Amino acid sequence: MTGTPANRRLGFILAILVFAADQFVKYMVAVPFGLKERGQIVITSFFNLTWVENPGVSLGMLTATGDTGRWLLVGLTALISIGVTVWLWRERNQQDAFGLGLVLGGALGNIVDRARFSYVVDFADLHFGEFRPFLVFNVADAAITIGVLILLFRALLVRDKTKEVQDA
């Protein structure tokens, strides 16, 4: 079973846009803003640009130490991206295709960082005083998180009407 061409197109175009935006913003904070050298740029009382070289995945788990760990993480995330690509290709629901496009684009952006630098560039530091509800993140991380939340919301809380009719 394959998904609709419109859903595939939506998902893959969104993935390309997320990937491009992620790489562009990372370039901007690294080169013109010189964030790596500066360490931190205060933007507002609740948002800073803070340079973080993340050798792991979400929440600092699976930290890659050395080249073997780095390439194992690249391989693992590439396999996950292939799985998301196959799922997107087969997806019939537009909202799920949207979520999958966000996840795929974000995953590819972080894979490129890990392959190029051996770490993922994180820079977005949202905080309220000393309270930091998130770790420092990037555009790719935000896209992955939003995409997964869309998929979870739809899977757990929204039922397709065609499925309800079939079950009745």
Distance between the termini: 24 Å
Overall form = globular
Structure class? mainly alpha
Order of helices and strands: HHEEHHEHH
The count of β-strands is 3
| Range of helix content | 55-70%
Major sheet: 3 strands, antiparallel
Low-confidence sequence ranges: none
Oligomer: single chain
The tally of helices reads 6
Q: Strand share of the residues?
A: 5-15%
The overall pLDDT average reads 88
Radius of gyration equals 18 Å
Major beta sheet, strand line-up: 1-2-3
Describe the structure.
- This protein is mostly helical.
- Helix content is 62%, strand content 11%.
- It has helices at 5-30, 35-38, 66-90, 94-117, 139-157, 161-167; strands spanning 40-42, 47-54, 120-126.
- Strands 1-2-3 form a three-stranded antiparallel β-sheet.
Give a concise summary.
This protein is mainly alpha-helical and 168 residues long. The chain is built from 6 helices and 3 strands.
Topology diagram in text:
Blueprint (H helix, E strand, L loop, with lengths): L4 H26 L4 H4 L1 E3 L4 E8 L11 H25 L3 H24 L2 E7 L12 H19 L3 H7 L1
Antiparallel strand pairs: 1-2, 2-3
Q: Features of this protein?
A:
168 residues, globular, 6 helices, mainly alpha, 11% strand, single chain, 62% helix
